[in-house]
Amino acid sequence: MTILDNQFLMILASGIFAALTASFLGAFIVIKRMALVGDVLSHVALPGIGLALLINIDPIYGAAAFLLVAAFGTWFIEKKTALPPDAIIGTFFTATLALGVLLVPNQELFESMFGNLFAIRFYDAIVIIITSIIIFVLTLILSRRLTLSIAAPDLAKSIGAKPDNSYLGFLLLFALSVALGIKLIGSVLMGALTILPAVSARNLSWSLKSFLSFSVILGVLMTGLGIIIASAFNFPPGPSVILSGILFFIISLFLKKS
Amino acid sequence: MNNNPPILEVRDLSVSFDKQEVLRDISFEVNEGEIMAIIGPNGAGKSVLFRALMNLISYNGEIKWREDAQIGYVPQKLFEKAELPLTVKEFFILKSKNLFFKDKQLIGSIVHELKSVGLKPEILSQQLTNLSRGQFQRVLIAWAILGHPYVLLFDEPTAGIDLAGEDTIYNLLHKLQNERGLTILIISHDLNIVYRYADKVLCLNKERLCFGKPQEALTNEQIRRLYGESAYYHHEHKT
Questions:
Q1: Which among B71, B81, B93 has the least Cβ separation from residue A31?
Q2: CB < 8 Å to B126, chain A
Q3: What's the whole-model pTM score?
């Protein structure tokens, strides 16, 4: 595959749009201190992919359905119990990885877990790009209320905001955005794509605006670079995207203002 | 005293968490423009009372705010999440009803409110986590009075603000009471402050132990019942 043919540009574009929303939402995952939940949530996609393949529908919808249910479950358990979400969900969602490995046929397993550049067809690219833009805009609208709900739930309630609802909206958007990146990045590493840009951005930022902007920029850069490397060396895209992310993180450590 | 109906009336308020009663049969009323201090030992349910007054938790009994009563809330602390980089300006913008676009009117009022709590506009670009405790307290008050509420619920921090700083915070609240006719409910840990500034005091230890003018309601006997011997001594020592 030559670097600049149409198919490659299409793959690159869908990767960049998926990264745009994932890294934007990931910024809130990091400030809410639920990086583990965010990471492990992506594993829930795997049994969804398995079932979708069994009944012969596009895996992206199976992943999305499972992720949305898991996101709602996270919200519900956290609301109903005083347990920290990572305690239950960390173990429960990891178990779905085991279930997924049993459900997904062997030949599909590797790419479901680590991504496949060529899994993206024209139709997928359109769905990914349009949905990404919608999620991005919705997150932007939610962001003030969400930030206040994370920073000070009581203050949020005192001005009539509903922190519970913002949090649920956020989790559902996050689940959808993870589903969008699943084909390209794979279920195992999609969680890392949401968190890596945000933690690097935190090292560089001095305000909420700069934090969110850096997170999105780094997410797009690491995904773009990762896809180019994957294509050039014929690597699975998931690992090369995450490793480029680690590279940016190391750079951010040196640029960190003390 | 005016003859208007009280801005807040509470009748037989009880709150339970997991079948354990945290507040029992609390009744009191607050008139417009008064400062009411709420005192009591740790775990007496003071903050719980505030949360009930703001309708954040479920309760039994009656809480009746005057219909137009808008409430501003100053929490004891905000968050310890250093991973949230937030400038003072951004913190204020979070209060905007406008969810996305620039709120020009709000930005104008922010500067005005900062001035009324004694802060300079330059503080807007600073990070929230870099403020001193005193500055931070003032920012929280400015945040609460942004939008001109009639009532301020002030949950005083237990420690951390030095006495000089604390003194001016109370002067500031007193000034707000005078200038804006603000009604202030304050959870206080300092009895001297209560005697000096409060029009009314509510002593709380799960149930109401005293209520009324500080000089009348807050007898030494009452303080001993509320805090035990050591606090009684502490208080005597101070005055």
A1: B81
A2: none
A3: 0.86
